[in-house]
Amino acid sequence: MTYTPQEDNEFARRQRARKKARLRKLKRRRAMLIAAMVLLLLLLIWGAAALVRALFFKKPVDPASITVPDWVDVQLLDVNPYSRPGTPLEKINGIVVHYTANPGTTAQQNRNYFNSLAEQNGESATSVSSHFIIGLDGEIIQCIPLSEISYASNDRNSDTVSIECCHPDSSGKFTDATYQSLVQLCAWLESELRLSERSIIRHYDVNGKLCPLYFVENESQWSQFKDEVAAWRKEHY
Ligand SMILES: [Zn+2]
């Protein structure tokens, strides 16, 4: 069988057209594949960013939104420059534990002392306070709202909540009742403020001050205390 020259030309033209169509199809497929891969990559980046945000950049809780439980006796100090300046505490990144360094005094006496500082004037004035004081019988007095700073923890006043603990003698060791209330209060605060276990620190960890003395001199007791806070939180919150 033989083709005429016209038929040969027609055949070649069709072959070229088919080849072109195949090439166009291939290019289209390649473009779609690249677009799908770019989309997948963008989704992966977005997912990874969301995960990192969720894991490491938790939005801090607004301290003003927290209501204290009924086992806390709220006796707020009068607003004054020496113990309750009324400065907003916008976010809380930690809980600082202290001891009063005044053996045998009660939570009420310490709270009243903080409040009496309002009467001072002059340059030698004392500025000190704490959000909470835990007494020898485990009673807890709140002196300052969580939405305001206290004067207890030096450089960390601006982003921490402070707890002063009473103690019966100069060893600084807390009574069982004080200790138990401290465990409970720290676990509750940690949970409400969505803080990690690492956020409970001693005044000592801020600036090296020997406070709370017993937990500075007995490192293992401090570790055990934090374990007990974690256990209480797991069980109750
Ligand atoms: Zn202290």
UniProtKB/TrEMBL annotation:
Keywords: Cell wall biogenesis/degradation, Hydrolase. Its EC number is 3.5.1.28. The lineage of its organism: Bacteria, Bacillati, Bacillota, Clostridia, Lachnospirales. Pfam families: Amidase_2 (PF01510). It is an enzyme of class 3 (hydrolase). GO terms for molecular function: N-acetylmuramoyl-L-alanine amidase activity. It catalyses: Hydrolyzes the link between N-acetylmuramoyl residues and L-amino acid residues in certain cell-wall glycopeptides. PANTHER family: N-ACETYLMURAMOYL-L-ALANINE AMIDASE AMID. This is N-acetylmuramoyl-L-alanine amidase. One of its GO terms (biological process) is peptidoglycan catabolic process. InterPro entries: Amidase/PGRP_sf, Amidase_domain, NAMLAA_amidase_2. Residues 82-213 form the N-acetylmuramoyl-L-alanine amidase domain.
